Backbone:
């Protein structure tokens, strides 16, 4: 007799904690045979992802547009006549999408703009009584690229969340890079989103080729200062390899949701929120931590009930099988487990959620109460949904205006202050054996 396992397993604290903490950083997961076979078809040999991407980037840096086009044809089966999308095509797409969808994109963009324009990013000068000044000057980056995945489905929300934030920061040139489909065209909803977000250019290019072209520059594609946005393993690996030539926002892994729920939580809502994030990817993490085994069982039953009605059941089933519920002793322990895991999203389905907020040390974003559910954060709440994953919330932050600016230090010492601090500077230079540094002080004495 075959007994079917539930698609959402339940663990005790010890087993669940080990499961929570057993995850590898981005790029350290084993390369699947399917992925290796796909690389072999393109390159003629079974390379690692790292080596395959390195070969593409090296070729693009050496041969420019010719290499970009050749690799795009080899990987995608074709390439557009021109990688730059004409403004007229963007305008046509904007007018072609349904009015309610266009309105929803604009609504999302407005909310994101309103939130991010409140973030402090101002230059400052500390003027001294003697006429000198020290300070910092904040300047936006000049040219930024937003990578928008095409893949199995376009994600205009990610484009809106990243490009709008860059524009609020004052970036004058925001380039959107997204792969064209089999017909050589970009999904109209992505082009419309680019227009609404204020993108100044759209490039029909994806994968490691896009990252290489944007990082190094080619005859037709100008290099950028920073590349942001998620992508597949080739995009993430390429971003890692070009870091230093350009800045990047991070190395995003699969999405993560951790729900802390008490006995009074509604299992229907908890299940719905977990399922919403599990449908992103087979590697998505959808985790429940609760002191109530009764609630965990009820959520498990709701997931079994709700999932068959969803369009991405195969993805959900695989994601849920490697996720699960952890039964803890109390809510204090639940928050401690959260802080160890450092999730991208933390959802508080508890009676008094604000009492737990102050205990949270690590999370990309906190969703306070069942009415503040994560889907709203994905689309229309306001803060960007580009958040740290794979435990990097221990030290990283969600994408913000600060990510699109740089700081220039200003040194404007008066003669009096310069003379006062010179002896210590000279002594430190001597201690480091830098006699020319010390001499530059001495000649002014």
Residues:
């Amino acid at each position: 007799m075959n007994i079917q396992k539930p698609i959402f397993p339940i663990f005790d604290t010890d087993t669940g904690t080990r499961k929570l903490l057993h995850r590898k950083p981005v790029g350290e997961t084993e390369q699947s045979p399917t992925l290796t076979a796909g690389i072999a078809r393109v390159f003629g040999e079974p390379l690692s992802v790292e080596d395959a991407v390195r070969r593409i980037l090296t070729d693009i840096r050496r041969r420019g547009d010719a290499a970009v086009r050749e690799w795009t044809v080899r990987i995608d089966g074709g390439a557009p006549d021109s990688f730059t999308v004409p403004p007229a095509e963007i305008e046509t797409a904007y007018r072609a999408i349904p009015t309610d969808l266009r309105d929803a994109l604009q609504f999302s963009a407005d909310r994101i703009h309103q939130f991010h324009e409140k973030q402090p990013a101002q230059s400052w000068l500390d003027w001294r009584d003697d006429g000198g000044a020290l300070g910092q000057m904040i300047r936006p980056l000049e040219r930024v690229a937003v990578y928008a995945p095409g893949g199995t489905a376009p994600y205009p929300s990610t484009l809106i969340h990243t490009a709008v934030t860059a524009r609020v920061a004052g970036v004058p040139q925001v380039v959107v890079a997204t792969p064209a489909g089999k017909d050589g065209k970009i999904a109209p909803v992505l082009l419309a989103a680019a227009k609404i977000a204020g993108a100044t250019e759209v490039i029909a290019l994806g994968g490691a080729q896009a990252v290489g072209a944007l990082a190094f520059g080619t005859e037709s594609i100008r290099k950028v200062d920073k590349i942001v946005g998620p992508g597949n393993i080739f995009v993430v690996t390429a971003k890692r390899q070009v870091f230093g030539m350009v800045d990047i926002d991070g190395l995003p892994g699969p999405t993560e949701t951790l729900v802390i729920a008490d006995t009074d939580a509604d299992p229907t809502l908890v299940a719905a929120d977990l399922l919403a994030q599990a449908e992103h990817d087979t590697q998505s993490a959808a985790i429940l931590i609760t002191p109530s085994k009764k609630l965990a069982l009820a959520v498990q039953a709701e997931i079994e009930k709700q999932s068959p009605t969803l369009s991405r059941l195969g993805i959900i089933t695989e994601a849920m099988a490697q996720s699960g519920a952890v039964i803890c002793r109390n809510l204090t322990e639940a928050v401690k487990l959260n802080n160890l895991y450092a999730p991208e999203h933390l959802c508080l389905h508890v009676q008094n959620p604000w009492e737990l907020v102050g205990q949270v040390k690590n999370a990309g974003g906190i969703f306070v109460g069942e009415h503040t559910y994560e889907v709203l954060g994905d689309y229309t709440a306001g803060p960007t949904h580009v958040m740290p994953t794979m435990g990097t919330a221990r030290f990283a932050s969600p994408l913000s205006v600060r990510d699109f600016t740089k700081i220039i230090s200003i040194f404007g010492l008066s003669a009096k202050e310069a003379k006062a601090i010179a002896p210590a500077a000279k002594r430190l230079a001597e201690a480091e054996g830098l006699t020319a540094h010390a001499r530059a002080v001495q000649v002014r004495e």
